[in-house]
Write a structure and sequence with these properties.
18% strand, C8orf32 fold, alpha+beta, four-stranded mixed β-sheet, four-stranded antiparallel β-sheet
Length: 477
């Protein structure tokens, strides 16, 4: 009698252990327990035994024989695999909803079971190697789902290629699952060719061609979870973005376009372009804070990616989606590496270049590249593949920053002129078919300034025309 009880207890423990590690459903676990408890061993059907056996094999991942005696999975921390040096990327369909909390799949749902089944199938098909695997010099496998998830997101924000060593398949999720939790890493994929089952665990290789700029800071701003800020630079950037938000103190009554303009103006008035550092990151300049928000917000100087990254993070802090674009720009004399922004407003994308709206030498801010369509950015060329599927076609905000310069009569012309006497430029926004014209305004300026006037041909912005004129007081002959 005692022997029978012992056997039953052993079978219960073993069966429940197998059921738990293989991901059996609650109903299957109940069935196993009922069969053993009531001594109905004949009810272990062939299908049930096959399911448990197959799942156990893929989960335990017992290695097959191999001629190799040792193996190393590289985390690829060389500069050519660092995030930010690649020019391609992908755009997640979920990214437009950034700022909202990510909904996770409830445990026990059919969606979760399907995802677990996919993982089991993936692991079962991996090649086996009886050697010991080492990732970045460490052969200790991660033992919990939480640790693996943290490693995946932390590494995906920094490296194009990286590996994760885990104790068993219960720690792993599909690439789609990670992207749902972290839309900041929207091009993550599992590379099966470079993944394998080793004697000390399962090594999964991931590729993440590109992600949004500053993914860990973006995640912290989106969720309030700062646990992924694993460098002093990231922690400083996160703190400075929050401080800048407090300094801006934008009222809740502002519209999104008003918020975008306020942040655009704030950054330009705060900082100046750092002419001593090469534009965009390079081997020589990568250590400079001018490439990140620390330079702009703390040292009041930046280059193009410093402007673009700060603009993007401050917009996100205010609930507005933006992405940093890396590519090239023609400044009229040379073609140079450059970074600027795409901004999503009311379901439409617009291009904005804060750097080029901050004149060098430091002067009056301009809006030549503020919330513009593609046709106004023909001197910019994106190097990011995700922009191929995004079109900026709306031109309705061309005139927005110049509303204060509207003039449709002689009295209004004189008023706008006097208000800009000490600015770097004169701006005049006049009705194209109204009483004023480009020639009329230029003649008025010549009669007042008594010098030659340098101006830019009027730009059509809806029913208005915008005339930009260099103020001879700021640019004397």
């Amino acid at each position: 009698m005692k022997l029978r009880i012992k056997r039953a207890l052993v079978l219960i423990a073993f069966s429940l252990f197998i059921a738990s590690i293989t991901g059996c459903t609650f109903e299957e676990e109940e069935k196993i327990l009922d069969i053993i408890t009531n001594g109905k061993y004949s009810e272990f059907t062939d299908n049930l035994i096959e399911d448990i056996s197959s799942a156990a094999e893929s989960t335990l991942a017992l290695p097959a024989s191999s001629d190799a005696s040792s193996a190393t999975a590289s985390g690829n921390e060389s500069s050519n695999n660092k995030q930010g040096t690649s020019s391609s990327s992908s755009l997640s369909n979920d990214f437009a909803s950034e700022g909202a909390a990510t909904e996770t799949t409830a445990p026990g749902t059919s969606a979760e079971k399907g995802e677990r089944d996919t993982v089991k199938s993936l692991v079962k098909g991996l090649k086996k190697n009886n050697s010991t695997c080492s990732v970045d010099g460490n052969s200790t496998a991660l033992k919990t789902e939480e640790d693996v998830t943290k490693r995946v997101f932390s590494a995906a924000g920094d490296y194009v290629n990286f590996s994760v060593l885990m104790s068993d398949a219960t720690c792993l999720h599909t690439a789609e699952w990670y992207k749902e939790q972290f839309p900041e890493i929207d091009s993550l994929e599992i590379n099966l060719e470079n993944s394998a089952i080793y004697s000390n665990g399962i090594c999964i290789n991931f590729t993440n061609v590109s992600c949004i700029m500053d993914p860990h800071v973006s995640y912290a701003l989106r969720t309030g979870d700062t646990s992924y800020l694993d460098t002093n630079v990231e922690k400083s950037v996160y703190s400075l973005i929050n401080q800048a938000t407090d300094a801006l103190a934008l009222p809740d009554t502002l519209s999104d376009i008003e918020i975008i303009k306020e942040i655009h103006d704030y950054l330009i008035n705060l900082a100046k372009y750092d002419t001593e550092v090469p534009g965009m990151r390079s081997e020589e300049s990568n250590a400079s804070n001018s490439h990140n928000p620390i330079g702009l917000l703390h040292e009041a100087k930046a280059v193009c990616d410093g402007y673009a990254r700060t603009f993007k993070l401050l917009l996100q802090k205010h609930g507005i989606v933006s992405r940093v674009v890396s590519g090239y720009a023609n400044n009229g004399s040379t073609i140079e590496r450059h970074a600027w922004n795409y901004v999503l407003l009311n379901g439409k994308w617009y291009q904005t270049d804060v750097t080029w709206d901050d004149p060098v030498p430091d002067g009056q801010l301009i809006y030549t590249y503020f919330m513009r369509p593609d046709e106004d950015f023909t001197n910019h060329e994106s190097g990011d593949s995700w922009t191929d599927s995004v079109s900026c076609t709306d031109a309705s905000y061309r005139a927005y920053p110049y509303e204060e310069y509207k003039c449709n009569s002689d009295a209004e012309l004189e008023k706008i002129y006097n208000e800009q006497l000490y600015d770097s430029f004169f701006y005049f926004l006049y009705l194209t078919d109204g009483s004023l014209s480009e020639k009329y305004i230029i003649d008025y300026l010549i009669s007042n300034e008594k010098v030659a006037i340098h101006y830019y041909p009027s730009e059509t912005v809806g029913e208005y025309s915008l005339l930009k004129v260099r103020n001879p007081r700021a640019y004397p002959e």
